[in-house]
């Protein structure tokens, strides 16, 4: 816990009150009228939550009585002042030096007055033990929230948790922030419908704090798929709240396909979607509504670290400012307030409607208020950015510390671009910090929708004079086809290509896979495109062109480009023949070799080639085209250069007597063409060979070029024999034999022996569909045992009831033979009222079974006449579970035994308490004897009286009784109920004081003080807080038996002025009391002593003397020197004499005093022991002190 500095406790207490939302009650104690009491100022706060008192004590330096009055008046002023105006945080305040007014407390700290007999002035801190400060415990934020009790789904990617309602969202938020799960790391969620949060007055985000006072939120770490739905009516209205949004903090999370619409009014790290993102990916998300706050705020995310933003759109108003304390910088952005080490691509901010706006103090950017080591690509901003209150405004980025901003378009306006208070503003970047950002490498391909907007610098404070055409900084025209580039203060219109080509070149220059490409629409303006990659191919050319688009350009390996999804794409390809060779080599497109393949390899499509048009429909993904050209021999060619045959043997029926079938690819014909066609001799012949040139019997070819497979070939029969042999060794396994053989079919011309060959592949496999029947079934257990325990808690006459049941037990069946094909079984329970079994063999018993209810009902009827009797109902029953195979109806049985018992933990509670007396009476008599002017006083007090409490019923288990007295100043009661009356009660002292004032007017008058008071003693049971009361009546009377002196001569009140004798003193004063005679204080080399006018001096005695108008008790040693510090009198009582030279050195302490860091209490009553230390007892104000007089906290 952070240490509270001096004079800051008041601020801390009020900040606590504001946090907890409790009502304060402040009281300031006035200055005591006794000269010996220091001045105390108390601040007390009534904590309504737990009923405890929070109290802070502020020390004030000792001063004269007039100074004390000023302090009391100013303390009263502080009590009446408004505490609500004090918004300054306690840690930002500094303590003020002495003598300077401290605005936290409203009083002047003055130096202590200079006084003799010592020049040394030292501050003395005095207070009561109630100076302890009690800090209220932090409070959980999530109490009383209505939410779902579970989420549907398994949380896997295949079966994600389903979010169906606002209560599901609240459960998600609660579990994350209360650490019920580790942020759902690795878990998946899906939104199944549009969800309204209108039932939440102020939303507590997903990924937030657990309790008030937490310093870090608990982030969401899972995967949340909005599934194209939206969450709306989001409301956050706590302007002190950080980490504000639908999500508060996310770490390692993925959030995608989600629209959020709401109103967020918070402090910092605030946005519609998420207050803070760390190492997370936000993809295809839309934010609507409005965000208000200070510090770091954004439309999608407030502050981001190491995160990725893809295809996000913000239309929400983002309205921010600077923290009033000046502790936070302000960053506001349409997508993100501030981003560090992050990636932002293909994001849009559109605040063009009348409701939306984007402004703040500090740094404002259409995409981000601030970026550091962050890449911003393909961004688009429309609407007004910034206002007159901003320091730096950028159309895309407010402040750029490092990173890259490329391929951005700004179609909005810069607010307050002519404001005199604005520091810098830029069309694209408001302020570039440092010297590491360069044109081309970091800033390139940036455009506005008008050349006129370049009246404002593109990059605020830097780089404008260095912009050249190669940096691609410029403006596009209203048709979005034409554009110009900026250089040396002017524009050069570009006529060699369209604007979409310029943007696509920027994407290719960026070179990132997850950045969108650009293609032309039918009118030539840029739309999203998908990259068509065409590698160079051997012996041919390949290119594509969008059909019926006048603005499209041909794409080939040297000129990459993109096309819009769904467009018709024409494909052009032709061979590149080697006519210089001898003989010349000619090439042709290999049939079925023209493909497009998606870059993620998830899809592939053949492009039909032939005499007609070659075309395909552009998919919504980046693709690569491929084609293969083959060489033709100069004599004979085949229509195909590759054949494939599939041969399958199918085995069915019993495994031991299989039926055999075949499935073979039909024979395939090869057609040979003689080149040239005019050749005179077109005779040819065919043959087959293995790939190594040897003969083979697997492939057959006839004189017409018809190729077939021989299933009796040795290679095939050897594979079959090996499979059957293996199955005989391992009968449980099916035959899975497979093999591939290769060969060639060659055609040879009779003239010239020109050849052409086709490669033949034979794929052979055996499909084994044979089956093995079931012969029996067994269970792993013959008997199961379950316990059902009924537990009773609370009041025995009205107990709460709960049941615990042995967890379900799994039975495992074993079907024989082990390799039987159909091992399916069914399960059944013998007594469905007693137990249940599912189709997985999971057996469970029912706590609500009828036989258990019968046992309980029988016991209740038996105990009807004795409601306090303990419950013991119990018993046992048996049943069974059966498993049956579907193949053959084979069965096995398991016995199930269930035992039931009752555990009675109930308590017989107290229902009534009574006392043996309804009223007790006490007498306090003050007996005065001797001389009326100097009487002897003694008090007679009634003996303590015992109260006894009776608790019913007699069976009650907790009969403890606590005692209390309404007015503790009148009487006290022990833990055993012994009542005693307090002789020195304040009401008696008040009667005596009034009587003394009357006697002071007539010193010979009789004392007549008397009166009666009453209070209530209450006995309260510990169990149930039942109470009974007894009235305590106390009567006080004075019996004055003094005698009037015979003459009024002035001898005074005993004791020698010269000291010597006993050191005891009477409550009436000393031998040389005030008014008797005057003397002088004298200091020598040994110490201080007092000289009477007659030359004598007191020694070994107490003396009451006046100094500077203040009368105090002092004690002098046997040599007549004034004593200080601890002093033990002859009667054994201990006193403390002021040791500090502040003008009152040597005075006797009374009341509470802090000495050497410990609190002590000295008698304040003038009863002959005034000033004596209280030890091992309770002080008049109710505190306990130990055997050394130290306060026991």
Automatic annotation (TrEMBL):
Residues 1063-1074 have a biased composition (Low complexity). Residues 1049-1062 have a biased composition (Gly residues). It comes from the Bacteria. Residues 1-29 form the signal peptide. InterPro entries: Big_2, Cell_wall/Cho-bd_repeat. Residues 70-79, 90-100, 862-874 have a biased composition (Basic and acidic residues). Keywords: Repeat, Signal. Residues 64-131, 862-881, 1039-1080 are annotated as: Disordered. Residues 934-982 form the BIG2 domain. The keyword Metal-binding does not apply. Cell wall-binding repeats lie at residues 1099-1122. PROSITE patterns: CW. This is BIG2 domain-containing protein. It comes from Hungatella hathewayi. The lineage of its organism: Bacteria, Bacillati, Bacillota, Clostridia, Lachnospirales.
